[in-house]
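Handout, page 2. Input:
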Amino acid sequence: MAIMQAQTALTNAEAGLSGATTDAAMLAAYRAIQTAADNLVTALSTHGGSAADIAAAARKSGNAKAMADDLAEKVADAEMEANMAMVATAAKLYAGISASGGTGDDTRTAVYNTTDNADIDVTIGTGTAVTLSEDEDVTVAAHHGWEGQMFTAEPEGDEGTYEAVVYSHVGEAMEGKKFGGAAANDEFEYALTDGALSIDTSATGVPARVALPGVTRTAGTETFNLPDPNPNNEQVITVPGSFHGVTGTYNCDTGAGRDQACSASVAASGFTLTGTWTFTPDDPNTRLMDVPDNMYASYGWWIHKSEDGETFTASAFAANRGDVTAAAAIDTLQGTATYSGGAAGKYALHSTTGGTNDAGHFTADAMLQADFGDDMITGTIDNFVGADGESRNWSVELMETDISATGVIDGLDDASAEVGTAWTIDGTAGATGGQWRGNLYENGDDGVPSIGTGTFYSEFGRDGKMVGAFGVNLDD
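Output:
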């Protein structure tokens, strides 16, 4: 029985090797095979196994040991290399993390671009803002119900790359007006002439509503031409597509001289049309799905890496797309309210004396506790998950500060000094420092603001820096 059990254990250990895909996993598998083979040698020797079987088991043990020893050295070298790389990354990110805001050379800001209200403009120091556009090839998971996006840029004439992760409070779609009629009114969204909508190609927000499924290019301009030959003397270009989510047909009139350019250029979202365009819906009575895609609160982090990869600059932001409604008359409220949601940002723990080196981006939970009677608010960021996907035993306390009547959390005390934070690691609290600020928005029917965003910056002694932002919703 002992021999059978030992043989089964060895068979199972050998089977485990087939599922090992990394050096570390194969090392563990070979060590398991070595141990099981040694146990089989013992069982065979104790219970009268043949010399041939004992020798075969011993060979398996020896072969597994040789493979494991080689892999152990390889794994140790890889771990050392990874540790050295992390030390370097932690040092660069530690040096580059800064609080959002600032002035002059200390400026670290990110806002929605005012031209298309879809891109992100990042400003570092006194330099010109760099525009980051959404990278639709990268999926960012939603965080506490706030939708995630990745923005990137590699601007010409600027060394390095930019990256930002943004989480936004986008409301649910609701059925709206019918597409169009004789006039734009409470029933119809657009005024149609002879059943067609004249496209104002220069209007803000129009490109995002233009969808041309037949145009597959991902950058640049598509120019549309009349048929050649043109026996019917046509002057109108016809392109199928949709506008504001409603299917139909686009028409571009080339004019009597046929010198009118008709083109579509890839925009940050949708297409920018050039020429004299109209759109005829397949069904003008189609109900629009009213999605507040041009008006929402957002938070996130951004980082710039120099071309040589040696210099990082990182910060956070809380910005609004469109006219998000500020809170009002908070000073008339009484009682308390709790807000819960998520946080995200960048962190670096850097030690030159044998301590922890760890750096990257994080996600976490966020909570705010408002006392409307005293017009004060506090907060906590906890349940951190680090760059490796593993949890961190951290928390950051957002110290008590005031809320204005319009929901501004200015992060200042009565003497206009910045209200700080306290970062706790493994139960040890760092000194109070750093800063935090934010805003509450959108009063509900009961007068209580329903969402909030803000930024925070915290330090842990001389070894840790963190910058992040949060977005929260009023608890039920």
